[in-house]
Write a structure and sequence with these properties.
Blueprint: H1 22-29, H2 36-42, E1 46-51, H3 53-58, H4 60-69, E2 72-75, H5 81-84, H6 94-105, E3 109-112, H7 131-144, E4 151-158, H8 180-193, E5 198-203, H9 211-225, E6 232-235, E7 238-241, H10 249-261, E8 265-275, H11 283-303, E9 308-311, H12 351-360
Parallel strand pairs: 1-2, 1-9, 2-3, 3-4, 4-5, 5-6, 6-8, 7-8, 8-9
The chain binds (3S,4R)-3-hydroxy-2-oxopiperidin-4-yl beta-D-xylopyranoside (XIL).
């Protein structure tokens, strides 16, 4: 195996721009008979993707793919504070309404993401937002969509648990000024406005054993103990796989059992599969590793009864990990090896799609 992570040896595939791999396209072609949403529905599950109203509008082929494959979806940006309340009391519901109208027309149920997050914030907004700002924000947004039948679930709070004890500001493992009582208060403000939707807390990096998984579980237990309306726990599942380390599937399985044990439903909210360095020599090998990652992850999810799987996009073409702001530094030179989603840049199905389909089947 050529160690390319350190750039020791490069091979022709690393620099080819050709993303159409005959092996994977040929071998997945037979896997496209059923849509992912139908395969999911047959086992009483839901499959979907993040959607951006911009991509849906500008790329009709992509919009059709979302419509064909998804029974659920999550707004990629429409409900983020900087988009929906760019200045105090000034609301821009257009992106959200476009997403909702698209989903309603395509029989897709929509998740609103995300109401309180330290990123995608307007300059005028403190973090954590003052509870008076939260009250105004939630009254306008939750109130507007309270009776909307397409929007069924809210990511109320996103990514409040620190990445490690070094970043944590208290024994609860929270960060950036957020206290555990604040999280409780934010959920209670939301429930006072609309307690009819699914309320979710969402975070990343909790799919493997470790400090963050423990702190996230403690936060969930605290919220439930304090009678907070918390219906589901969102696991973003930006999964990294590599030849050099193994994912602790057993720890993840135990974590899911513990979440269910405290009366909350784990859901997979932003799934994608990134292959870590040292990278394989060819895109075909990479796609096989990505597909294997989906299969291993989903097998644990489904044996533990998870019923909602949302990937953070459908096509590598629109993956957030391709964007310079979010592209992992170590993969910066290998952008065409960032192939984390079921469809490639040309909207062709990949081995990853076949793996997802087989997991449902
Ligand atoms: C990302 C979007 O995909 C990008 O388009 C945007 O520029 C930044 O945010 N965790 C989250 C998501 O909860 O909101 C992030 O989405 C990806 C990481």
């Amino acid at each position: 195996m050529t160690a390319v992570g350190a750039g020791l040896v490069s091979c022709k595939d690393l620099f080819t721009n050709d993303t159409s791999i005959t092996v994977s396209n040929a071998s997945v072609a037979d896997g496209t008979s059923s849509s992912l949403k139908d395969a999911a529905r047959r086992v009483k599950k839901f499959y979907g993707s993040a959607i951006s109203e911009r991509d849906i509008e500008q790329d009709k082929a992509y919009a059709n793919l979302i419509s064909r494959e998804c029974s659920v979806a999550t707004t990629e940006g429409a409900f983020k504070w900087v988009v929906i309340e760019p200045s105090p009391g000034q609301f821009n519901f257009a992106p959200a309404d476009k997403s909702i109208n698209f989903c309603a027309a395509n029989n897709i149920k929509l998740r609103g993401h995300t109401l309180v997050w330290h990123m995608a914030r307007p300059d005028w907004l403190a973090y954590p937002p003052k509870l008076s700002d939260v009250e105004r924000h939630f009254t306008a947004i939750l109130g507007r969509y309270r009776n909307n039948k397409t929007l069924y679930s809210w990511d109320i709070v996103n990514e409040v648990v620190a990445d490690s004890d070094k970043e944590a500001e208290d024994q609860n493992g929270l960060r950036k000024g957020v206290k555990i009582e604040y999280v409780r208060d934010v959920f209670q403000i939301a429930a006072a406005i609309d307690n009819t939707k699914e309320f979710v807390i969402n975070d990343f990096g909790c799919e493997d054993a470790g400090w963050k998984q423990d702190k996230y579980l403690n936060l969930v237990k605290y919220l439930k103990k304090n009678d907070v309306k918390l219906d589901a726990v969102g696991l973003q599942a930006h999964m990294w796989f590599s030849k050099n380390y193994t994912w602790n599937a057993t720890a993840f399985r135990n974590f899911l059992k513990q979440l269910k044990g405290v009366g909350v439903k784990p859901i997979i909210t932003e799934l994608d599969v990134i292959i870590d360095t040292p990278l394989p020599n060819t895109l075909a090998e990479l796609d096989t590793m990505v597909a294997d990652g989906y299969k291993r992850f989903l097998d644990v999810c489904f044996t533990e009864g998870i019923d909602t799987i949302i990937t953070w996009g459908l096509s590598d073409k629109y993956s957030w990990l391709r964007h310079p702001d979010y592209m992992p530094k170590k993969l910066a030179g290998y952008k065409n090896f960032i192939r984390p989603l079921p469809y490639d840049d040309k909207l062709q199905p990949k081995l990853a799609r076949k793996a997802i389909l087989e997991s449902f089947n």
